[in-house]
């Protein structure tokens, strides 16, 4: 084996990178082998002496072999061209699939972004309600006159309405997140809904107690 053939073995092959290639790499290796063989036969034919009949016969035979090798090069070249076309098709198909995946990711990100924005808005509303609950609790402890008790009952009514609306919106978000397959967001929204519902029930009991005090006309705590 010549030095050029040894070098040719590594073209597109596993000798370069320690791993085998596909059809494209094999076609390139095959073309390189046939091309090297054709070049050697053609060079040999050119160098043969034509001074004797025997030399002419050997040169004619070598030329025929070189011509046959040339045909094999053409076949190998066609195979490489076909492999390149197949590789191009694979590349285009992969690129198309990747672009589609990119669009899918974009749509998914927009969908998730919208749902998480809704959750953030609900959380903000929850913080506002919590401050109102704390304020109302302070007023409830200090309320002694019917007017003060009535004001606290009115404030509690507002709190209950806002809590009910927040619980409904949290339930809707749970449904939307579940439909979108966002389990963690659905779980968080459900936790918020349960927490708000429990707090609303407590506020409702306190409101009933305040109404009872107001109905009894007492100013005692």
What does this structure look like?
With 221 residues, the protein is an all-alpha fold. 88% of the residues lie in helices and 0% in strands. The protein is built from 6 helices and no strands.
List keywords for this structure.
disordered N terminus, 6 helices, 221 residues, 88% helix, mainly alpha
Which ranges are low-confidence, i.e. pLDDT below 50, for 5 or more consecutive residues?
1-20
Gap between N and C termini, in Å? Answer: 107 Å
Spell the H/E element sequence.
HHHHHH
What is Rg?
43 Å
Characterize the biggest β-sheet. Answer: none
The total of helices stands at: 6
Mean pLDDT over the full residue set: 85
Share in helix: over 70%
Q: How many beta-strand elements?
A: 0
What share of residues are in beta strands? under 5%
Alpha-beta content class: mainly alpha
Backbone shape: rod-shaped
**Oligomer description:** single chain
